[in-house]
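Bench log. Compound arrived from synthesis this morning; before running ITC I wanted a structural hypothesis for how iron/sulfur cluster sits in the protein. Inputs:
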Amino acid sequence: MSSAEIIRRCEALYEDLDFTAAREWKAAEPGRKVIGFMPIYVPREIIHAAGMLPLGIFGGGDQLEVIHGDAYYQSYICRIPRSTIELAITKRLDFVDGMLFPSICDVIRNLSGIFKMMFPEMYVRYFDVPQNYRDEIGGAYYVEELHELKRGLEALGGREITDEALRRSIALYNENRRLVRELYDLRAAEPWRVPTYEAYLLLRAGMVLPVEEHSEMLRAYMAAVREEERPMRDNVRIVLNGSFCEQPPLGLIKSIEMAGCYVVDDDYILVTRWLREDVPVEGDPIENLARAFLHHSVDTAAKYTEREEDKGRYLLEQIRRRGAEGVIFAAPSFCDPALLERPMLADRLKEHGVPYISFKYAENSGQMQPIREQAGTFADSIKLWGDTGS
Amino acid sequence: MSSDTTRIDGKPEVVKEPSMLKQKEMIARNYEALTSAPETGRKVVSTFVPGNLNELVMCFDMLNNLPEINAIQNGLRKKSGAMIMDAEKRGHSEDVCTYVKADIGMMGKGNIAPNGKPLPPPDLLLLSYTGCFTFMKWFELLRHEYKCPTVMLHIPYQGDGRITPEMVKYVVKQLREEVIPAMEKVSGVKFDIDRLREYLRESAKAEDNLVWVLESAKNRPSPIDAYFGGVYYIGPIFTAFRGTKDATEYYEMLRGEIEERLRKGQHPITPEGEMEEERYRLVVEGPPNWTNFREFWKIFYEEGAVVVASTYTKVGGVYDLGFRHDPDKPLESLAEYCLGCYTNRNLPQRVDMLVQYIEEYQADGLLINSIKSCNSFSAGQLMMMREVEKRTGKPAAFIETDLVDPRYFSYANVKNRLESYFQMIDQKRRAAGAAA
Ligand code: SF4
Ligand code: SF4
């Protein structure tokens, strides 16, 4: 299959707000269940081991007209909760058996309560994670959280989740994470070969497809693009930060590259790269998942940074490792975690002489022109700065 | 009853009862202790109102500084607007919580306390917070500026509407292994659990009286306003005084005053004297607006609207539902306190509370003051409003203001909205009367 064909499939999945692929998966065998989850991190391994499909819900994008959702959220709250409610009210989530709301911010937290009230029949769980990273403190608590999730899914599915099943799922997700890392490495090495909107669509496909199928897709895509000729452009290399929850419209993702910036790292669909190392397959699987979260997870605004000197370290590492020349802060309007984090990260960049720009978006932003101009000017200034060597 | 009704610049001043004067003196003394810390050598802990560990802070002879209270003070004094603009000029987004920006702007202006003296930089940031993620980022921002030690006490959210034994265990473990050692290190004082028990015993006494005061609003007429007046009543117990003899005395005094008002069948005291008539009894959800606090309140008392119960007065502890600090299980009790604060409760629990208040306090309806920059309170309030209307059959209204950003308070809008709300209540009453 050519990369274009694969991307067309991803596009179709992305545009399908009825989640037909997931519905079909569910209908294929009696008793199958689907568990929706919001950005940023949930342990999909446990859902998978329960024989269920973890389904990433990333709002409604720019194709969904929000009519009912506006009656639930005021105008000064980001858009993802209202479009998620819209999806639910318009019955697009009527096949979903449960919803997980990871602890990311106050909006998602309260959204979990709204779902509890609106859909009392549904398995709705706020998924808390520790902000203390010591095994015997935060770890002990988190292991209990994971067990509770496991028990909840067992009750919902009417069957036990065995350690064997968990280990198999962990292995499958390890493989998927390795492939995603490979994709990101490839894009950083040869960004003209893997345009960001393609990488993005591939990751989005992973939110609706079973992991086995998604891994296949990633392999096929990478094999195809390695063979294909693609024109190299004189773009600057940037890291994009702040888009971990409500996603920008596809047009915006494309615009940044068209304006002269190659995205060589980002925080889109972070759940796919949350654990930076393989989760050990041997030993107690729940403990292993907990440890991986505590010690090998990415840095993002929804997590507490224990030591002041570590603030921004992950971003600086991304810049160094990927050979980036600048940072674009792109956050959803009204997004407290991203916007509160930004000044601290910006200070770190200043200290290290890394240029950056900032803007805000909404998932339904229509006006790309100002962002394209801003990104274009940014790219030009980096090139100029590089030329003069100052 | 002695009262002090001084007028400054011809404007009426709040009528002062003895308890108010006592509170004023306590707050002044606390600011004095804070601003003179560099001379006295006492260590300063900055922490938040919901989930604050005042009893524990006192065990280490440290002083408790609360950035939200500073922001409120600056809001009331109309100084917060400029501070917020300053923070925005320094790269802070216009979209985020205005308490944070008021605090950061205040720092830029030398951190001047209400007594005109600079607040010292904190010796420890105690990130004990409940129900709001912004708190976490806020202290990361302060740590970024002050480069001082910071200790995190993570309080899990009551996502399923209950406190589990695992949650308590987790919080207690953090207290034992993270918070207490950090406080010992900064203060140089060794932890003494008996001292903590003593303070907790004192807290519980004050808490009993606070609950009595808040519940006095079940009477008709209500002798108190449980929102505008309520924010004064919760002051000592939600801040640096919980666990002190001062707080116990304050609440005894307050209770005495209100018993007296009840005996006389009096209405609440407002900045312009006693309210004359109780025409509407309301339950209010959400924090008040601070920059225009007096004007805001006035719209209510001019119409004879009394707030008989509010959720804002539960941010620093939901005592009326039964929680008390308990000297017999000191650390567990601190953990349960933190876990139980209002915004750490999930939305269904918050709705239950509002419904219960409307019924128990025989209110005419619910008013939501939705704060533009506070997602913790505001995200989901429209749904809460509809649920409460559905379950109680009482009308609800929704207004939007901000905490300390004067740009977001529109007097005309708020007044219009409230006036039509009061008319709606009248209509409902007439309809009910006609039906009867
Ligand atoms: S976009 Fe930001 S504020 Fe909105 S739900 Fe996501 S993390 Fe929370
Ligand atoms: S968001 Fe709300 S609860 Fe959180 S700090 Fe700001 S005002 Fe307080």
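What the model suggests: Chain A touches chain B through 58 residues (CB under 8 Å). Residues B 97, 99, 132, 134-135, 343, 374-377, 403 surround iron/sulfur cluster (ligand 2) (CB under 6 Å).
ITC booked for Thursday regardless.
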